[in-house]
Amino acid sequence: QVQLVESGGGLVQAGGSLRLSCAASGRTFSTYNIGWFRQAPGKEREFVTAISRSGTSTNYADSVKGRFTISRDNAKNTVYLQMNSLKPDDTAVYYCAAHKIYYGSDPSMYDYWGQGTQVTVSS
User: Fold this and answer.
1) Do residues 59 and 103 make contact, with C-beta atoms less than 8 angstroms apart?
2) Is the dihedral of CA 114, 27, 108, 58 positive or negative?
3) Tens digits of per-residue pLDDT, 17-63?
4) How high is the pLDDT of residue 44?
5) Whole-Å CA distances, 70 to 33, 42, 91
6) pLDDT band with cut points at 50, 70 and 90 for residue 67
7) Which of 34, 15, 43 is nearest to 74 (CA)?
């Protein structure tokens, strides 16, 4: 089992940057793939990006390619989401999630979730 805690959200102007962190408890963090999802008010939870256990493979939603970068530091039990060139449409609660094998875009496949961190991008 793994517990996830997101941090780093906040209010930023369009064009700005934020870095989110997903910190995990436990000594088995490196055995989990990690995904980032987001959910805006009145909308379904949306895939953003995911990274494999070793960090050598990543997936990105088309809407964030070239602007967002996912990375991980297994020694620190942390996954990062660097978000650049932010747009008002990026406004949402951002969640990280974990699964031992899967790192695709289907949120129902992930076993563990954090509580989320709010990102608000003003125009």
Assistant:
1) yes
2) positive
3) 999 999 999 778 999 999 999 999 999 999 999 999 999 999 999 99
4) 96
5) 12, 26, 18
6) very high
7) 34
Buried b (16+ CB within 10 A) or exposed e, 23-47: bbeeeebeebbbbbbbeeeeeebbb
d(CA 67, CA 119): 15
pLDDT given for residue 26 in this prediction: 77
On whether the CB atoms of residues 20 and 81 are closer than 8 A, the answer is yes
User: What φ, ψ does residue 62 adopt, rounded to 5°?
Assistant: -60, -30
Alpha carbons 74 and 60: distance in angstroms, whole number: 20
pLDDT digits (tens, 9 = 90+) for 95-117: 999 999 999 999 999 999 999 99
Q: Which residues contact 44 (CB under 8 A, 6 or more apart)?
A: none
Token pair of 122 as six digits: 């003003």
